[in-house]
Design a protein that fits this description.
Elements lengths: L6 E2 L3 H11 L4 E5 L2 E3 L6 H24 L10 E3 L1 H6 L10 H11 L3 E4 L4 E3 L5 H22 L3 H42 L5 H23 L6 H4 L2 H21 L16
Parallel strand pairs: 2-5, 3-6
Antiparallel strand pairs: 1-6, 2-4
Length: about 270
C-alpha cells in the first residue's frame, strides 16, 4: 500500500516478493523504511526527517528483532492477500489503521518483517500542518492501545511478552511522552536554573540526550550525515509534540473518527 505522493524505490516490489518467497508461511506483511526527501525545505521538515530516521533505522529494526509483530506505518506495507482477508482488513474508524492492523495480524499468529529499499515521502513543510498530522497519529495510537488493552491478559497470551512489550513501546509510550514533553522540559529547565533539579529533571535531560544520540546513529544509517545540524534542535521538536497531543486528546473525546487530512504538494505550500 502506498500514499499518492510516495516515491518508492524501484527495487522495493522485488524485495517484498523475495521476502515472502523466502520467509515463513505466516509472514503476512513487510514494511519498507520511509525517508523524507524534502528535508532541506524547512526546519520542521528537517526535524521530521530525523524523527523518521530514528523510527525506521533504529527503533523499528530493534522491535523487529525482538518480536514477530510490528506497529505498521501508514504506507509502503506489502501484504499477503489471504492474511489481510483473514483479519478483516483495515478498521475504517481508526485514524492510524495500519498500526492497528499490525497488532491484529500479530494476535492472529501472523508475523511482520522489514525490507531495505525505502520509500521517499514528503514531510509537512509548515509547522501547523505537522501538528495536525502528528495529532492524528497520536489520536490513532491512543485509539489502538485503548482497543487492544481492553483484555490485556488475553493479548499477552496471544502475542507473548515480547509482542506485548512491542505494543507498549511502539504505540503506548509515544502518546504519553508527547503529552508530558513540554511541561516536563519547562519544569526541568526551571529547576536547573534555580539549582533545585531532582532525579526526574535529570531523567528528562537524559531522555533528550538519548534522542540526540539516536538521531546521530539514525542519520548515519540513512546516509545523511550532513543533517547533523538538525539533530541538536530535536528537544524543541519533541516539546512541540505536546501541542499535537493536546489536539489528539480533543479529537479522541469529541471527534474520534475525524481524519485530519495532511496536505501535500502545492496545497501544502499555499
Amino acid at each position: 500500500m502506498y500514499d499518492a505522493e510516495d516515491r518508492p524505490d524501484p527495487r522495493q516490489l522485488r524485495a517484498a516478493a523475495a521476502a515472502f518467497a523466502e520467509g515463513p508461511a505466516n509472514l503476512a506483511v513487510v514494511q519498507a523504511p520511509l525517508v523524507i526527501w524534502n528535508h532541506t525545505e524547512s526546519w520542521i521538515a528537517a526535524q521530521f526527517a530525523v524523527d523518521y530516521a530514528i523510527w525506521f533505522r533504529v527503533m523499528l529494526p530493534f522491535l523487529a528483532r525482538l518480536s514477530p509483530i510490528l506497529p505498521l506505518g501508514g504506507t509502503s506495507n506489502h501484504f499477503r492477500t489471504e492474511a489481510l482477508r483473514n483479519v478483516g482488513g483495515w478498521d475504517p474508524f481508526n485514524v492510524t489503521e495500519d498500526a492497528d492492523l499490525g497488532i491484529r495480524l500479530g494476535r492472529m499468529g501472523y508475523r511482520a518483517g522489514l525490507i531495505e529499499p525505502p520509500t521517499y515521502e514528503e514531510a509537512p513543510p509548515k509547522t501547523l500542518a505537522w501538528i495536525k498530522q502528528r495529532g492524528r497519529w497520536i489520536q490513532g495510537h491512543i485509539q489502538t492501545v485503548s482497543l487492544h488493552m481492553r483484555q490485556p491478559a488475553l493479548m499477552l497470551r496471544q502475542i507473548g511478552a515480547r509482542g506485548f512489550f512491542t505494543v507498549i513501546v511502539g504505540l503506548g509510550l509515544g502518546p504519553m511522552a508527547a503529552i508530558f514533553a513540554l511541561p516536563l522540559q519547562v519544569h526541568a529547565l526551571y529547576c536547573l536554573g534555580n539549582g533545585h533539579a531532582d532525579i526526574m529533571d535529570i531523567a528528562v535531560l537524559f531522555s533528550l540526550a538519548a534522542q540526540v544520540f539516536a538521531g546521530l546513529i539514525a542519520i548515519g544509517r540513512d546516509g545523511r550525515k550532513q543533517m547533523q545540524w538538525a539533530i541538536f534542535s530535536q528537544p524543541i521538536y519533541v516539546a512541540l509534540q505536546s501541542l499535537a497531543a493536546a489536539r489528539a486528546i480533543w479529537r479522541v473525546v469529541f471527534t474520534p473518527s475525524f481524519w485530519d487530512k495532511t496536505d501535500h504538494g502545492c496545497a501544502a505550500r499555499s
